[in-house]
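Progress narrative, work stream C.
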Amino acid sequence: MRKAALLVVNQHYADGRFTELPGAAADAEHLAAVLGDAAIGEFEVTVVENGTALEIRKAIQSFFALAQSQDLLLLHLSCHGRKDSRGRLHFVASDTDRDLLDATAVPSQFVADQLEESLCRRAVVLLDCCFSGAFAKGLRTRGAAPTVDVNEPLSGPGRVVITSSTALQYSHESERSSRERAEPSIFTAAVVEGLRDGTADLDGDGYVSAEELYAFVHDRVRSRMPSQTPTRSVNNSEGTLYLTRNPGILHLTAPEGPALPDTLRAAILTGASWQRLGALHEVERLLGSRQGPVREAALEALTTLVRDRDPQVGAQAGRLWHSRGLGELPSGTPDTASRATRPTADGPKILGIDFGTTNSAVAVFLDGEVRVIPNRHGEVTTPSVVAFAEDGTLLVGKAAKERASRVPGGAIHRIKRELGTGWTYRHGVRRFSAEEVASWILADLRASAEAHLGETATRAILTVPAYFNHVQRAALTDAAALAGIETVRMLNEPTAAALSYGFGRGDENIAVFDLGGDTLDVSLLGISDGVVETLATSGDSKLGGSDWDGRVVDHLVREFALRQGVRLTDRAALQRVAEAAEAAKIELSRATSTVVDLPHIATSPSGPVHMDVTLTRAQLDGLAKDLLERCAQLVQRALKSAWRVEGIDDIDHFVLVGGATRMPAIATLVKELAGGREPVRGIIPEGVVIGAALQSAALSGRTSEPLLLDVTSPPLGVETAGTGNETSVLPDRRSAAHAQAQESGPRKAPAQVSPEQPKAGS
């Protein structure tokens, strides 16, 4: 079987009415590298770049004419497309005259004819083209109205046609780079990404099929450009079309390749660390096999073990690699977010997701323990930040945060605060709701989980602040639905943290003080007989570590103005100050003083000026004195409103959760409120998402986790002659006698009450 790829890309056009497409050059370069990689595609790649209509026709005809029935062919076209007066699609060549399409362009019907006459019955066509380019604010667009029906001319048995969008691709390209190589289009970039690191291997079998590639590209393009939807046409009578191999998975189950012993394959793919260590001995023996295919499979196995996520396994495999004289170790360390594993047989997993104001995380319960899943960068938390790149690409997490540091005001932060408020964000001609923006972050978390698990994950327990009202909770549920996630249950964040802390403990009452980057959540929890009950909640959605950062920024700006006589107003300069302020706050958690040194922060009539300000821990505490008072009031409010708790002495433990609680002033405050008892600071930063994963395990029957009774927040109840507490647990275990209504009085409907509304009769 032969695998061949023909890439037809046109960047330059003699007819000036066709704008140049610098992305086409990068399309060919990047896609050719992936398809031709012996570890991924093993295609024989031919590139026709800036060809005339005659050259392109010759290349396409030869490409299909020389193919045999069992060959696998891939044709990729990245160029302009245009319809003639009869609605027929033509591919634009470098010498195409827009007024003479029949004579100077490449008709799509010509490509269809070559497909039909070829002996090959397995072909994939990727179309990254459109009708005409258009400028919009300095950007070029390869797109037009979605009226081209690619299914008609290119249909046939054993063929898959994938187009970049219903409009045949919006690929934004900077006018300034019209004579240079640029980044690939959004569509081709998604194709390259899915093939290069194997993330398009959605079922984790080690191979990327045409069907999987379409599904991956569809989701990736939609996430980066919501107005764009790739399309697909399939007429396949030859079974599944496998295009490439997943370089992150051991390919020991290739239908046409040699198979290593089942026990060895299982040990490498799904075994524990000690099993993978033992497998190295057998791999070493097979490397000396007289059979070439067996040696190749053994080498492939060793390559996988060199990249093993366990450092001991990777180190031992590396020593074997060098002892065999195999040269430098394979490039790249294991990325557990993109390396798929075989799905287990115990059904779909329920994820635990902590959608935070500043950072978010996802975890799952596997093999008797919680695993916090790393993202594509290998980090277990993802910044809750969204941005758009200059070419319109959607950025989520670390990439968005990095862009925000370079382009102040160019990113969306703290979207959690805006859920359910009607807030919208305008980008170009589109407006996006807070729920849509949140869905992009949730979709990124889901993608990391699915890549890690090697299976689809569409159900999750979401954590929320205990004070979130019903509108906010419904908004988060809507955001999850947009990300393809079914919300199985919502779990109050302090309750989730208590699960991490109180699992397996006896009867006790716990006060959880959760101070994150932007929110404070205080909850009093009762743990008894394996049941965690929320006794009271209090919080502030606009009070967090970032408020301390703001006080430091204001102080630094004032000091700079006093010393240098220069007022900082430049957004880039203020962004540098904000980053330095956060770093200083963190440093003061360890030291009693720190120096903020920012060279060339501004310019005065005498030249560049620098910021050099010493900040002490005492100064920070003084700047944030009112913030500490607000924290104290919220704790006291929770204690006052809690039923079954009469005072401080009824609280067994005060637990600090959240990155901002690392500030010594917070620990001191809580210690004072706790009557001099030291607060518990042993919860790891990911405690909330771990609690969510533990609860998901309980719901799916994977562990005997405690059941939960969470207060409905804000509470919703029925007023009965003045009884009822705003933090009463539903169902309420208490009973009380109520006066019977007077027979002569008018009958009234029961009054629903909530802290957000006045009581009946008030």
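Work stream C, second folded protein:
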Amino acid sequence: NTVACNSNSSSVVTCDASAAFSVSPCGPGRRCQGNGQCVVYSTCTVTGPTVIDFNGHVSSVQDRCAYTLMSAAGLQLLATFQERRRKDVSFLERVILRLDGSGVDIHLGQGGNVQLNHTTLRLNSSAQLIHGVELSKDKSRVTAKVTFSNYSTSILFDGTTAQIHVKGPGSLQGLCVNSSSLSEVRLSEFSSSSCETQYSEPADGRIDCTMMTARCNLLKEAPFTSCHSHVDPEPHVTACTSVLCLYPAGDGLRCQFLEVYAQACSLHSNHTLEGWRSKASCSPPQDLCQDTSCSAHEFCGEDMSGRPRCLCRAGFASKYRTRGALGDPTVCRENSASVSLAACLLAEKGINHSVLHLNDHTCTGQMDEKTHMVTFGFNTSKPCGTVISVAKNKIIYSNTIKTDNSSTSGPISRQSLVNVNFSCFYSQPDVKSMSFKVKGGTVMQQIISGSWNYSLSMSMCADLACTQPIDFSKGVQLDQTIYMSIETDGLDGNLINMKTESCWATNNENGNGGLRYDLVKNGCSNPQDSTVMIIPNGKGTGSILVFRMFQFRGNNNKIFLHCKMKLCLKSSPSCQQTCQRRGRKKRSVRPDYEDENPAFVTVALGP
């Protein structure tokens, strides 16, 4: 028998010994080679969420998982998908060449980034041979070529579209062979545990589907008609309309599907389509995001001005957009405050993070190179123009992330003005629930103040330095000197003081009933009792109350001490208490009532 190919290599022509003539079509995605054998000669196109397989069938990836595009002897092609501007539309994110038996993975990523396992490769237009794979990069895409004994493959990837062209008789499997087999070729290795979750979002009212369909149908018109005999336009039209009727035509999508078809034509026929760019108003391809490195929650796209920027993926941005925020809540700890803004959220609004600063222009944000979160902060040693104010029951430290008109010259500005206020505060101590047990000792209360916390501790001591706590088990003698230490931890001692507003004794736990004797009133020791003193503890945010032990006449020997404390700014006149002393008056059991209901500390003394 004599075997040959027909004129367009679509069929095998056989002439047997009896001169009988037969023609056997090779079928979709196959060509006849010179030896009369039908081999794979086709292109699989993965663009955005759509897959046009070797047979021209179209499917769409609806989730954010990884898939096997093609599996053949010696090579696996894998792909990962992620959302961009919408949670319900996924885009091709990365292509991975896995060489069998060698432990080699070559990752073709965003921005023209190529990695050998986890090492970044430096590529240019001159091909480099890496583990048998020929790699090169130009201004628009990365190309990888690999040749085995019975087939060859070339992969073109521009960050959004991968075109896989295969020649040879190899037995193939994967999404490019049967695009309807999504569940069978899904990979767990490069997929998150929640990757199969699918989302729905409201239709984008700005999209004119009729107009987009007309644009996609340009593939059915000249000059694309010259390639119809090589590449069926229908799958490409279907892919085009399915995306552009749902997803905004930014980030180069307006011309992407036309470009993909023209490239497929070139791969199949060595024929270059002419004139289509001017008809469709499309510029020559150029990966504007090349060498742009975005974080895991970002993608490279066009900002409001059409320039390439790292923008937020919809899933990441949704938690901020629902509350109109540009970043995370304020973090307050250890007399410091910080807030982190997402650079991609700023980019969406046309804001360059590098022009932002606090009230003090020298205090700028620090970007995390991995997450691209920009953090602004201040502390007690570097206040950055922080404004301190008193409001109701709080002392507030506030600052502002801002731009100003001086960042640009001339009468106009194209940079959005920013004013993001953030603050931390100390709240006045609410100590109604805090009390010493009968046996005395030390008590501490954690004050939860918005985000800033501090502790208030009080202890009864036998000496001024408070090195010896009182041993209540041995009893307390009348006229014995008592030292009650009031200390705080976690306050800004340079600016804030904890002031003892009042301390008084009663014969019951109710601080407002029964017999009462004042030790401290209006921030001053009782001028009629010379044994009472308030002494600063030398640490800036506390004091020591000194008094001599007493008891109420005609009552049992148990007394209760109550104190009301208040935070104040040291610069405030009310914090600089001036007290006048008068002569000593004999202690009395006559109750001295006040019309107030303060927050208080209760100390019970007695057996």
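Helices lie at 209-216, 234-244, 253-269, 276-280, 314-321, 343-348. No further action is required on this item.
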